[in-house]
TrEMBL record:
Lineage: Bacteria, Pseudomonadati, Campylobacterota, Epsilonproteobacteria, Campylobacterales
Protein name, as recorded: Autotransporter domain-containing protein
Superkingdom assignment: Bacteria
Signal peptide feature range: 1-23
Keyword set, alphabetical order: Signal
């Protein structure tokens, strides 16, 4: 999809609208180089004092060419303090060009102090498209959720170029709160699946999803509803995550974390690369529950780092009863094809919690391809507590290759219980 070019004079607000033969209203918005204050579409705040209110019943296309701030935030859409709780934009498509903050934060969709269920068009290829780069100095994100829960119920949101933080943290989803739980849901009970597609995330640190300071825990739910969207399953799709000198992860969280994928749901990244440490899933200072059900897929093709690579990392704040559980059932799979570290150790799983891995029924699997450390040790599993591996009724737990200066299938400080059953 190509970024549209508009010939219009920049104003701090809507430049104009016209109705075409298709009866679809098209808005051209270009607050070009809008300096001072926060800029954005939706509950729009800025130096110009502009505000754009969406007509949710209109059949409309909205195009935003360049959105830039030199002193504060730049945001594509802002939902602030319960402005919406359930929003149906099934007759609206939006396309954004460059979103840029030279000194602060740039984000595609900002939702603060607001629990939002978003319904988009379920018959179009893309409903909200960020066609060019989102670039922030301190941080850049596709979604910024502050004391908020967000659910995409239908449709597709795509980030087609790069989410880039020049001097800080870049993320697909940044979830932060003081009192509420941090919650992201990509879930459809309708005729087509809901999808979030991200091309590239780059920064000093880079994450697909980053959860911080959520006192009541962190939640991610993806449910494809057994539906397809243009022959694709519902879920979160990321091509690459790359950090320049900090950590990189598909998901990084602090505190108790629950991840659930149902009904053909997908959470997939092509490559994660870090000049420091790289993680698939990293849970700090909390328990972790990951449940993959009914043909769902958690997939990482390549995970590479200079100073330590971890498929699953769950550690910190350990106590009696602390746990890490990863279960696949009914044809679901968790798969990491390649885990590689240049200098430090490489792990399929590292945890100080009581560990339970379970693959239940035929075609269900927990699978690791190559685990490689060029100058350090390599581990399939390293656990500082009890480990239980249950491969039941034809389910499989697979470690294909483990290679390092020293290589271990399972290293545990306590009992290891293996429970194969069936085939």
């Amino acid at each position: 999809m190509k970024l549209k070019t508009f010939m219009a004079t920049a104003l701090a607000g809507i430049l104009g609208s016209s109705t075409f033969a298709s009866a679809k209203t098209e808005y051209i918005l270009k607050p070009d180089r809008w300096n001072g204050g926060t800029v954005g579409l939706g509950n729009l705040k800025g130096g110009g004092g502009g505000k754009f209110t969406l007509n949710v019943n209109a059949d409309q296309n909205i195009f935003f060419n360049i959105l830039s701030s030199s002193t504060s935030w730049a945001s594509g859409i802002i939902f602030d303090r319960s402005s919406y709780s359930s929003l149906n934009l099934s007759s609206t498509t939006m396309e954004f060009g460059t979103i840029f903050s030279s000194s602060h934060v740039a984000t595609g969709i900002k939702n603060q102090f607001n629990n939002l269920d978003l319904y988009l068009r379920d018959k179009s290829a893309v409903d909200i498209a960020f066609l060019a780069n989102i670039v922030g100095n301190l941080q850049a994100s596709g979604f910024w959720l502050d004391n908020s829960a967000f659910a995409l119920k239908t449709g597709t949101i795509s980030f087609e170029e790069s989410i880039t933080a020049t001097n800080g943290i870049a993320s697909g989803f940044y979830v932060v709160g003081q009192s509420r739980s941090g919650s992201v849901e990509i879930s459809s009970a309708y005729a087509e699946a809901a999808q979030v597609k991200i091309n590239k995330i780059t920064g000093r640190e880079a994450y697909g999803l980053l959860y911080e300071i959520n006192h009541n825990g962190n939640n991610l739910t993806i449910d494809s509803g057994l539906y397809l969207n243009h022959n694709e399953r519902g879920g979160i799709f990321i091509n690459s995550i790359q950090s320049a000198n900090g950590n990189a992860a598909l998901l990084m969280s602090y505190g108790n974390t629950s991840i659930t994928l149902n009904n053909l749901a997908v959470m997939k990244v092509g490559s994660i690369n870090s000049a420091s440490q790289a993680y698939g899933i990293a849970i700090n200072d909390g328990n972790a529950s990951i449940f993959l059900n009914k043909g769902s897929l958690l997939s990482i093709d390549s995970l590479t780092a200079q100073r330590g690579a971890y498929g699953f990392y769950v550690a910190g704040n350990n106590y009696s009863g602390a746990y890490f559980t990863l279960k696949t059932s009914d044809g679901a799979m968790a798969s990491i094809n390649n885990i590689s570290s240049k200098t430090n150790d490489a792990y399929g799983i590292l945890t100080d919690k009581s560990l339970t891995l379970e693959a239940y029924q035929d075609t269900s699997a927990i699978k690791f391809g190559t685990i490689l450390s060029l100058q350090g040790n390599a581990y399939g599993i390293k656990s500082h507590s009890y480990s239980r591996l249950n491969a039941l009724n034809g389910g499989k737990i697979i470690f294909e290759t483990i290679k390092g200066q020293n290589a271990y299938g399972i290293q545990s400080n306590y009992d290891v219980i293996l429970k194969p059953q069936g085939n």
